[in-house]
Design brief:
It is built from eleven helices and eleven strands. It is α/β, with parallel strands linked by helices.
């Protein structure tokens, strides 16, 4: 089977060298892999590095470098999918680390009869420093990232969505392309349509890839706010895309808002109760996050980091819901 290995990137020059090395090391026959790079109009050397890779003699079927003038991810994936000639379309983020058997494991799973495949995507720290490790623990903890049980599963199963998916080309031919009106929720909406089209999404724990953790606390907060914002907006297009766990931070924020109104009215125990329960849970989950880890003084900040991520995500969702009618009106006229 021919595999179209697709990567879109914006200002990823510091990560591309590692990714290129991983691509070269794939144990699947290189003459059955085409590489499609999509550059989202980067302002650094991202496109230059892609073009240099394309000139190398690595034995790949072909290497294509394309531009994405719209810059958004959904548009970039659509450009790659339309260009792809392979039987399987494989999507990878630029800040990803993949083992040598990544492509072959996806092909093996699809050859077994699956339509869409993927697996776990653990985070790895950018650097081995105490502070970076603290941020890594916050992002990899269930309390700081996701409570979706399949993300830590060790068994093959069928799920609603996967990271770094591999797709039979026919899946996009039937389900359509990515919705270019969406930001970070384009995967959720696409996978929802794929399931509605009758295809199953297979999670196989042997198909593993890794993603670098966010480099700074500020980047983590910005990411969580953006994720929450797009969940709020996407509710107006595809409410079935999400599970209840996507709205836990939003529920926390709404509980605080209601409790604050009650506090103003003189009913103080609701706010006190919510804060006591949350911070007890925060401290307990922080303890489990650092359990069996080498102790650093930065770990004292974990409860505050968790709180900031939950607030950013929940506030983002609230802002998205408030903006929803205006956003829908805007995209209707595009």
């Amino acid at each position: 089977m021919i595999v179209s290995f697709c990567v879109i990137a914006y200002n990823e020059e510091r990560n591309l060298g590692s990714l290129f090395s991983d691509i070269r090391n794939q144990d699947y026959p290189h003459n059955k892999i085409e590489i499609i790079f999509v550059n989202a109009m980067s302002t650094d050397k991202t496109k230059e590095l892609m073009e240099n890779f394309a000139k190398e003699e690595n034995g790949f079927l072909r290497v294509k470098v394309l531009d994405n003038p719209k810059k958004i991810q959904a548009a970039g994936w659509n450009i790659a999918i339309k260009e792809a000639k392979g039987d399987i379309i494989l999507r990878i983020d630029a800040h990803t680390v993949i083992p040598k058997e990544f492509v072959s494991n996806n092909v093996r799973c699809i050859k077994s009869g699956e339509d869409v495949t993927g697996g776990p995507r653990p985070n790895i720290p950018e650097e081995s420093t105490p502070w970076k490790h603290t941020l890594y623990l916050a992002e990899t903890s269930m309390f700081g990232s996701s409570i979706a049980p399949y993300r830590k599963s060790h068994h093959k199963t069928y799920v609603k969505s996967v990271f770094h998916g591999a797709y039979k080309k026919e899946v996009f031919e039937k389900a359509g392309f990515f919705n270019e009106n969406l930001g970070r929720t384009e995967d959720n909406e696409m996978h929802y349509r794929i399931r509605k089209a009758g295809y199953k999404i297979c999670y196989d724990p042997r198909i593993i890839s890794y993603q670098h953790s966010r480099g700074t606390w500020r980047e983590m907060i910005r990411q969580k706010f953006g994720n929450g914002l797009w969940i709020g907006l996407t509710l107006g297009i595809c409410p079935g895309c999400f599970s209840i766990y996507h709205f836990v931070p939003f529920g926390f924020i709404m509980s605080l808002i209601i409790a604050l109104f009650c506090f103003i009215l003189g009913i103080t125990w609701i706010l006190s109760g919510i804060l006591i329960i949350y911070f007890l849970l925060d401290i307990i989950m922080s303890f489990f996050a650092i359990k069996n880890q080498r102790i650093y003084i930065y770990y004292l900040l974990l409860p505050l980091i968790f709180l900031s991520l939950h607030v950013a995500y929940g506030v983002g969702t609230l802002v998205g819901i408030i903006k929803l009618p205006f956003w829908k009106r805007k995209i209707k006229h595009i």
